[in-house]
Amino acid sequence: MNTIKQNLVNVRSHIDTAAQKCGRSSEEITLLAVSKTKPASDIEKAIACGQTEFGENYVQEGVDKIHYFANNHALVWHFIGPLQSNKTRLVAENFDWCHTIDRLKIAQRLSDQRPDSLPPLNVLIQINISDENSKSGINLTELDGLAAQISILSGIKLRGLMAIPAPESNYDKQVEVLEKMHLAFKQLQSQYPNIDTLSMGMTSDMEAAIACGSTLVRIGTAIFGARDYATK
Ligand SMILES: *Cc1c(COP(=O)(O)O)cnc(C)c1O
Q1: What secondary structure letter does DSSP report for 50?
Q2: Of the residues 202, 223, 232, which should be mutated to test ligand 1's pocket, given the most ligand atoms within 8 Å of the CB?
Q3: Is residue 231 predicted with pLDDT exceeding 80?
Q4: What's the pLDDT band for 229 if we cut at 50, 70, 90?
Q5: How many angstroms separate the alpha carbon of residue 219 from the centre of ligand 1?
Q6: Inter-residue long-range contacts of 190-197, CB under 8 Å, 24+ positions, other chains counted
Q7: Which long-range contacts (CB under 8 A, 24 or more apart) does 134-139 make?
Q8: Is residue 106 a contact partner of residue 92, using CB atoms and an 8 Å limit?
Q9: Which ligand 1 atom minimizes the distance to the CA of 203?
Q10: Where residue 101 falls among pLDDT bands split at 50, 70, 90?
C-alpha cells in the first residue's frame, strides 16, 4: 500500500470513530482532501482510493490541477484560500465551491462571473471565530446581514459556514470555539433551507470539529504529509 492510500484509510477510520463517539453517522461528514502545494501525481493516488473532493488554496495552482483532471467529471473542487477580487473570475469559471466569502463584493463578482452553463457556485461564509491576527472572515455579529445579501444572488448558492480557528491543541478549548460555530450554523439553517454545510476541522482538530457538528473536514497533512513551501 502506498503512503497516501494508507493515510486515507487511517483518516477515514478516524472520522468513523469520532462520529460514532458522538452518535453521528460518518456519512454526514465529507472528507475534503486538501492538496495545496502537492503534485497532481499525489492527487492521482488519492483518486485511485476513491477520493473525489479536493481543496486548493491558491487560485492558479488550483485551476492548473482542475484543467489537468478535466476529463474526470466525478471530481469536486473547493477553493479554500483567501480570494482577492482580481482572481474571482478564475474561481467562478473553474471551481465547484468557494469556502472563503467574507464580503459582499467578492460574492457579487463570483455570482456575476459564474458561467450560465454551470450550476450556481456553492459558497460558504467564512467566520473569524477566534483568530484575532487573521484578517479573513467576518464576525458573527455581521452574519445575518451578509447572509441576507448573498442569498439573493443567482450565480451562487449559499450552503453554510466555514472557519479556521486559531491553533489550539487542547481538546476542550477547541470544542469551546467550535461550539460557537455549531450554534451559528443551526441558527442560519433555521432561516435558509439550503444551508447544509459546516466546514471545519483540520488535521489537528478533526475530532473536536466532528463532535461540534462539522459536515466537512478539510484534511491536508494527515493525507499528503507535511507541506514544503520552500518551492512556492
Ligand atoms: C491548509 C489548509 C487545511 C489543511 O490543513 P492540515 O492541517 O494540513 O490538515 C485546511 N483548511 C484550510 C483553509 C487550509 O488552508
Answers
A1: T
A2: 202
A3: no
A4: confident
A5: 6
A6: 191/147, 192/147, 192/151, 192/158, 194/157, 194/158, 194/159, 195/158, 195/159, 195/160, 196/159, 196/160, 197/122, 197/124, 197/159, 197/160, 197/161
A7: 134/164, 134/166, 136/82, 136/100, 136/102, 136/164, 137/100, 137/102, 137/163, 137/164, 138/102, 138/103
A8: no
A9: 9
A10: very high
| Domain spans, the chain | 3-224
- Give domain 3-224's CATH number out of 3.40.50.10800, 3.20.20.10, 3.30.830.10, 3.40.190.10: 3.20.20.10
**Residue of the nearest CA to atom 4 in ligand 1?**
220
Element (H, E) at 20: helix 3-21
The grid coordinates of residue 95 equal 471551481
